[in-house]
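Hello again,

I reread your note about wanting to compare the complex against the isolated chains. To keep things tidy I'm splitting this into two emails, and this first one only covers the full assembly. Below are the input lines as submitted, including protein chains and any nucleic acid or small-molecule components. They are followed by the predicted structure of everything together. The single-chain runs will come separately.
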Amino acid sequence: MKKYLFPIAMLTIFEIIAITLWLTKDNLFYLFNFSYIGISISFGLFLFIKKYKYARRITQLLVGLYMLVYLGLISNENMQIEGFWYYLFTGVFEAATIHYAVAKIFGVLLFGRGWCGYACWTAMILDFLPYKVPEQKRKNIGFIRYIIFGVSFVFVLTLFLSHAGNMERIMFWAFIIGNCVYYITGIILAFAFKDNRAFCKYICPITVFLKPMSYFSLLRVKCNKEKCISCGKCKKVCPMDVDMTDNSRKRQNGTECILCFECVKNCPKDAL
Ligand code: SF4
Ligand code: SF4
Ligand code: SF4
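Full-complex prediction:
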């Protein structure tokens, strides 16, 4: 039973969030929403423990498709960064602001960039591309993420200051167009840099929140130095160029880890 403690703990955390928001906001949607996400993540972790090859991908599709299709397209919730600014400016602690608080800001202190490995609907598509492990050296263009972050902020701020009408509709179309731009850019970059996760490494504005918070993450891959034989197999399979054999928080690309556990699966000595 001990090995199932982690999925049970994840389910418990999400149920606490689900019930708390349901009762405090008096809205049954939160119970359904966070229970569904918790069950999907726990199910993926359960499959991972059972050594099922596509465990992470199943969770990614369950959560990613739910958020993109049901929340985004059917319920008209803009869960992109523009939606976060929008709800923040309106002073409403709902939808995108709650989503960001749980998955991309405060939750990151607990479960790192699990969002990027198990839930993001952009990466859900990019992970189907052929370059699961980068075939080129990392580029020095990560500054682009800050430009996109600033542009998204100014875009929503301008709409507010100009008192643009029908903001809900504008946000819906911003969600559709934004996602199309992300997918096209992500696919082009993946092929140009031979790296499925190039978009995550250089462009994604959400990493402006994710990276600093994940530096302090409770959940992280650690290396047992007594078992490690320095074979380097772990680094060869990492999609994010992390030096997971270094246990310090300052390890190379440490804030990039998406907790995919490919390194753990491929370590011949169970050192990770
Ligand atoms: S870095 Fe951005 S695009 Fe990549 S998985 Fe994380 S949130 Fe999604
Ligand atoms: S794969 Fe395992 S044994 Fe090899 S370097 Fe990595 S942690 Fe050490
Ligand atoms: S391979 Fe290991 S270090 Fe690299 S992203 Fe996945 S879990 Fe993190």
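For quick reference: Residues 221, 238-240, 242, 244, 257-263 surround iron/sulfur cluster (ligand 3) (CB under 6 Å).

B.
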